[in-house]
Write a structure and sequence with these properties.
There is one protein chain. The chain has one domain: Rossmann fold. Helices cover 38% and strands 20% of the residues. It is an alpha/beta fold and 297 residues long. The strands form 5 sheets. The protein has a 7-stranded parallel sheet with strand order 3-2-1-4-5-7-12, with helices on both faces. The chain is globular. Helix 2 links the parallel strand 4 and strand 5. The structure holds NADP nicotinamide-adenine-dinucleotide phosphate (NAP). The site of NADP nicotinamide-adenine-dinucleotide phosphate (NAP) has 24 residues, from helix 1, helix 2, strand 5, strand 8 and helix 4.
């Protein structure tokens, strides 16, 4: 396949590019970084306007966005979080509209923040949502992606959970919860953590690219979400850490403001219903398997 990817230099994107190249795809990465050198199968573009109308892409993959977890959510930062996603998706759309042949498929990132802060209820793709900044961001981001449907492009939106992998992302932070020999959890520890191993994210993106009968929104989380405390305990079991301590929510609210409430102190218990119904199987369904693999690497 000939693939155009945004966010291809990031934590998920870099690993995805390597996987696509290894299966024989040709990849173009749209990036703000002007210093990257490509080769025959991997090229970089800094301006979508430079892509000619005759370019023929089978798939667009859209992962770009300013980091959600860094910095307090000031109004200016919220605007950047939104515009870096929606404007990039709109720019991709403008390219697709200009191309003589729009891409057959778009796989576009969203997040489980779509559902807002929730309680214990398991959430499939059609679950009711709760208002909040994350919800509004995901609604606008997904709507920009769904606009491609008017061009005849098959659109798959992936509502990503907390992606765990080596060399970045949440796992590097979460593993600190046991680093002083004491397992800790955030606030009550009862909030849900819907996680997914990065390898399963890459496999699911390929699955959605390749299966022409799949479209719409897909939760991309492992089938067995855990509570925050359950995750710390799984980590502790592998690190032979025994004691447990909560990190008080008030401390986190003072440090992180609204972000603490939406990302850390509240969660969502998300179920990947549509992927499982489509026959996708997870290589890392349980947190024990994922943690064991990640700590062994
Ligand atoms: N990792 C997770 O746990 C997780 C969970 C839920 C959702 N997601 C979503 O999945 C996507 C990929 O996640 P990731 O962890 O791989 O992200 P990441 O490592 O932060 O990479 C995101 C990429 O987006 C581009 N980018 C960053 N700021 C930008 C801006 N202001 N304007 C335009 N482009 C910008 C960057 O590409 P260049 O520097 O090359 O331009 C960067 O490589 C993100 O949109 C993220 O919100 C991730």
């Amino acid at each position: 396949m000939n693939v155009l990817i945004t966010g291809g230099t990031g934590f998920i994107g870099k690993a995805l590019v390597a996987q696509l190249l290894s299966r024989g795809d040709r990849v173009t990465v749209y990036t703000r970084n002007t210093g990257l050198a490509g080769d025959e199968s991997l090229s970089y573009v800094n301006r979508l306007e430079d892509i000619p109308a005759t370019a023929a892409y089978d798939a667009f993959i859209n992962l770009a966005g300013e980091s959600i977890a860094e910095g307090r959510w000031s109004d200016a930062r919220k605007q950047l979080l939104l515009s870096s996603r929606v404007d990039t998706t709109n720019a991709l759309y403008a390219l697709a509209e200009r191309l003589q042949r729009p891409p057959a498929v778009l796989v576009s990132a969203s997040a489980i923040g779509y559902y807002g802060s929730q309680d214990d209820t398991p959430l499939a793709e059609n679950a009711a949502t709760v208002e909040g900044f994350s919800h509004r961001l995901c609604v606008d981001w997904e709507a920009a992606a769904r606009a491609f449907e008017a061009l005849g492009t098959r659109v798959c939106v992936i509502r990503l959970g907390v992606v765990l992998g080596r060399g970045g992302g949440a796992f590097e932070q979460l593993r600190k919860s046991v680093q002083f020999g004491v397992a800790t959890w955030l606030g009550s520890g009862q909030q849900w953590l819907s996680w997914v191993h990065r390898d399963d994210v890459l496999r699911a993106i390929s699955f959605l690219m390749d299966n022409d009968d799949q479209a719409g929104a897909f939760n991309l989380t492992a089938p067995e979400p855990v509570t925050n405390r359950g995750f710390s305990e799984a980590l502790a079991a592998h690190k032979r850490v025994i004691a447990g301590l909560p990190v008080p929510g008030l401390v986190m609210r003072l440090a992180l403001g609204e972000m603490a409430d939406e990302l850390l102190l509240n969660g969502q218990r998300v179920i990947p219903q549509r992927l499982q119904q489509a026959g996708f199987s997870f290589a890392f369904p349980s947190v024990d398997q994922a943690v064991s693999a990640l700590l062994a690497d």
